[in-house]
Amino acid sequence: MPAIVVAVVVGVLFFLGYRYYSSYLARSVYALDPAFVTPAHEFNDGNDFVPTNKHVLFGHHFTSVAGAAPIVGPAIAVFWGWGPALLWIVLGTIFAAGVHDFGALAVSVRHKAKSIGTLAGDVINGRARMLFMIIIFFLLTLVNAVFAVVIGNLFVGNPAAVIPIVVEIPMAMAIGQYIYKTRSSALIPSIVGVIILYALILVGQAFPISLDGLAEALGVEQTRNVWVVLLFIYTWAASRIPVWMLLQPRDYINSHQLFIALGVIALGVIVGMNTIQAPVINDVPEGSPNFFPFLFITVACGAVSGFHSLVSSGTTSKQLDKETDARYVGYMGAVGEGSLATGAVLAATAGVAASEVEWNALYADFATASGGAAGNFVNGVAQFANNLAIPLDLATTFAAVVVISFAATTMDTGVRLQRYLVQEIGEQLNIRVLARNLTVATTVAVLIPLAMALIPGEGEAGYTFGVLWQLFGTTNQLTAGLALSVIAVWVTRRGRNPLAAIIPLVFLLVMTTWALILNLRNFIEAEQWVLAPLDALIFVLAIWLIVEAALALMKARRERPAVPVDGTGTGRESVVARANPDEATSDVPLGGSDRDDRR
After folding, report:
1. What contacts 519, CB < 8 A, 6 or more positions away?
2. pTM for the whole structure
3. Is the pLDDT of residue 149 over 60?
4. Residue 495, by phi and psi: left (phi above 0), alpha (psi -120 to 50) or beta?
5. Would you report the helix, strand and coil content of the chain in percent, each value rounded to 5?
6. pLDDT at residue 356 above 60?
7. 338, 127 in Cβ contact below 8 A?
8. pLDDT tens profile 553-587
9. CA-CA distance, 536 to 551, in Å (whole number)?
10. For 320, phi and psi rounded to 5 degrees?
11. Contact 75/350 with Cβ under 8 angstroms?
12. How confident is the model at residue 464 (pLDDT cuts 50, 70, 90)?
């Protein structure tokens, strides 16, 4: 199968999904109102709340949600065949991620740009907020652990990428200082930063850096683990400094890299006319994880990501100029992520191998597939870049720099968010040393994922990575499930059809709990007494989420208004407000209109 045919078909399906399904969601499910005064206008402070052009906001949102996850997950999932992986990416993007990302943004905007965690407490109940905090804690722990392993493996396999990635840190800090002191636009400095970053690839080629000698001197069996420890030392320091000094300018640079990478994949596929060498459905070895349910939690962010609800309701909802822009920003952000995941599938099936025999060697078993997924993507993208007359060694380092940059940005954000969460948990439990002491909170946020990343596995790649990725996938899908349950309850209470949110919610929860049960059995049989209790705890959270969502939906159905709320502020909101006085203060005034409340 020519890769260009797959790319075109997927592109057409994504276009149709945006053109028709997102239009249905905007009109009939979320009832967007162009006259609604968004929080960006209501609370405009020139800092967090800023009305922003929808195209600019889309760029911010897309680069915030897109990272290494939609690359690694699909690159592993093609182990079961590129057909099932791609089918779930397309269906998941159109019918799950689009509903989830768009809905989290729309609901947050209607509730004064509150975060999805706060909305869980407001829309469902107080227990749901605590549930959200616990799930997010595990999600961030696993995000930080798996991406540390990804970066460590890529540094070992691509020593020429070390210098560009390391120099990017002080370069980003210099750009941050310049922007902060001059109050100038980030566009030109960040483009210059990308040019310097790619020029440093030549330096990295001339001076590759390996830590094999250091690992041997320290008696560490896997060089990757030395990199993992260094990465967490770096993130410990990086998470303590203001975001404008490093995190934001690094995001500016990586935002350009994201679009460059997508462009290279698209052009490389067109020019090279690469053919997919992997089977549509793979005959996997006996003893491999089951197709159902593990493919779905392995693809994870490539189809739907709970992490996106944090961004939609965190920063994006504070910058939305018009409520109707939520369709473009939220749904198209999901489509962008699905496009990146599609690129990962093509790189791991059409670019990485010249024959089916070659591909079968790379995906001989699940351990090999999971451990080599990031490397397969790098080599696949390098081949696409080579089609554009870029030397293969330079192309390989370029692809490695792109993936490591995305993963490092995710780690930077993840450790910082973990530290915030540790402090919030400290406040909730009245543990002052966690709530008030920045050093202690940061250390806790670093040590837990570090311990997870260093769990011994089999071989240099380590089967442990595949296990950690599955646990990350289940936790990520639980987060998406919680966000979808908030959306479904909110839509039901406004008298509209919640099936668009309920169907993906049920599917995600079924796949997640199924995977958790199978993994728990495997962990117990293998006597993995670290992973088994963790899996069991996540399973308890899944059951808790199912119960809370079911109770909240049944209650919402009993209280739903006879006439659907159309979002135009007609006064019919009072039906909901009278039935739900607690919600009235966070959505619309009792008996009043949306617009009147915000004049």
Report:
1. 467, 470, 471, 474, 531, 535
2. 0.89
3. yes
4. left
5. 75, 0, 25
6. yes
7. no
8. 999 999 888 777 655 444 344 333 333 433 433 44
9. 23
10. -70, 120
11. no
12. low
